[in-house]
Amino acid sequence: MKRFFVMTACGLLTLMTPVAWSQSADEAAPEPTLEEIVNLGAQRLVGMEEQEGKNAQSGQWPYEGVYRVRGQIPIGYRVGGTGITCLAMATSPSYLDDEAQQQAVARGVQFIIDSVNHPLMNPDYDGGYDVRGWGYTYGAMLLLQLERYDRLPEPIADEARAAAAAYVKAIQETDIPKVGGWNYARGQGKEAVSPPSPFMTSVTLQTLFLAHSLGYEVDAAVVERGLDTLEAARASSGEFVYSGNAAQRRPGGVPGAVGRMTNAETTLFLAGRSTAAQVRGSIDAFIVHWEWLEKRRKQNGTHVAPYGVAPYYFYYAHLAAAQAIECLPRRERAEYRRRVVNLLMKTRDPDGTWNDRVFSRSANYGTAMAMLTLQTAETGLVPRWESPEEEPASD
User: Fold this and answer.
1) Could you tell me if 226 and 205 are in contact, meaning their C-beta atoms sit under 8 angstroms apart?
2) Is the dihedral of CA 275, 277, 281, 287 positive or negative?
3) CA-CA distance, 50 to 72, in Å (whole number)?
4) For position 1, what pLDDT does the model report?
5) Cβ-contact 200, 149 below 8 angstroms
6) Looking at residue 113, which CATH number applies to its domain?
7) Could you tell me the residue range of the domain that residue 204 belongs to?
8) Residue 176 to residues 55, 190, 222, 246, 330: CA-CA distances in angstroms?
């Protein structure tokens, strides 16, 4: 099994366990290493597992937002949040030596496997606002990454691969008809044509890139359509519109787009449709306009003027920026890593967690996204997309 290590505060990689500190009474306590910070976050995540019944562990770490289905957190948020949280634990430096984390991840994997058959995870639905796509994307991402790094819980490894295939298939069955890409806010009806969201399309495509690299069945036409929608969403300013085509929709301003800019450019870069210069520009925009994200962190409401920033973009944007950095030439990465880590650490809560929402439960999501951000330098990106060569026409 592959071991992961994290960055030091100066942006370099640490390839050793933390040094045992000794100190006299008048010495200040040393700053924790980023490895220690990530490991503490993993411990906190273990303790955030939802309970079903009296002291029954459920294998769930739901993402909580304002959206509800019949008064309950929707299954897509429960599966997606669990996928993100378990991935953060499974890639933490302490994971291979921590049985509690391993058991927690195994329970999460089982929940994600079982959720394939949940009635509201069926891809055959009539559209409208629906977040099951987040469950497909991040449920699959967890299972695929565990397979990639040889960390699938062995007793249920075959079930996990079957579930990953089901989620990957569901992703491809729910791209927007005639247009491509994905959006959780869609028109009513199975054939409704809605504007795709770069925010959702970019991470969904990355899941398909990973699935393809592992040998899962991925339709190249679905991927290429999704990539086309990302390119169409890029405005001349470098920002990506919230949804749809930049030529048909007025951009809302770079400060409100810095999360989707970095993720979209990374996704396009991995498919050979963006350049290091374009990726670098998106990272610079994130750093320069970070304060506009910070103003909306832990605030009520969603898309608030002047730039339409919603609180839930905050840690999404940090992880997207960290991933974008790994597209740059190697000599540029350390300084950019340092800057992103410093911004992230400004918002860490005293108990070692992160939360960008007003809901206490969402500390699981915020902490997991922050941990993944801190580990990106070592875990790296999903593999590049290489479209299968078309078979020559038969005579």
Assistant:
1) yes
2) positive
3) 14
4) 67
5) no
6) 1.50.10.10
7) 58-379
8) 42, 9, 10, 17, 37
Please provide the DSSP assignment of 115-171 as one string: GGG-GGG-S---BSS--HHHHHHHHHHHHHHHHHTT-S-GGGHHHHHHHHHHHHHHH
Q: Are 176 and 222 in contact (CB under 8 A)?
A: no
Instruction: Dump pLDDT digits (tens) for 62-82.
Output: 998 888 888 889 999 999 999
The answer to whether residue 177 is domain-embedded is: yes
Q: Inter-axis angle of helices 99-114 and 34-47, to 10 degrees?
A: 50
**Per-residue pLDDT reduced to its tens digit, 309-345:** 777 789 999 999 999 999 999 999 999 999 999 999 9
Q: What is the CA radius of gyration of the chain?
A: 20
> pLDDT-based confidence at 389, cuts 50/70/90?
low
Q: Is residue 248 part of a domain?
A: yes
Q: What angle do CA 114, 160, 62 make, to 5 degrees?
A: 50
Phi, psi of 45 (to 5 degrees): -65, -40
Single pTM value for the model: 0.91
H/E run at residue 42 = helix 34-47
C-beta of residue 375 within 8 angstroms of C-beta of residue 323: no
Domain-embedded: residue 19: no
Q: What is the structure's pLDDT at 319?
A: 98
Q: Are 377 and 344 in contact (CB under 8 A)?
A: no
255-275 in b/e burial notation, b at 16+ Cβ within 10 A? bbbbbbbbbbbbbbbbbebbe
Q: Burial of 236 by CB count in 10 Å (0-12 exposed, 13-18 middle, 19+ buried)?
A: exposed
Residue carrying the six token digits 């497909």: 136
CA 361 vs. chain centroid, Å, equals 18
Burial class (CB in 10 A: 0-12, 13-18, 19+), 94: middle
Count of domains in the chain?
Answer: 1
Give strand ranges (E) for the chain: none
**Is 240 part of a structural domain of the chain?**
yes
Q: How far apart are CA 4 and CA 377, in angstroms?
A: 10
Residues with Cβ < 8 Å from 288, sequence gap 6 or more?
none
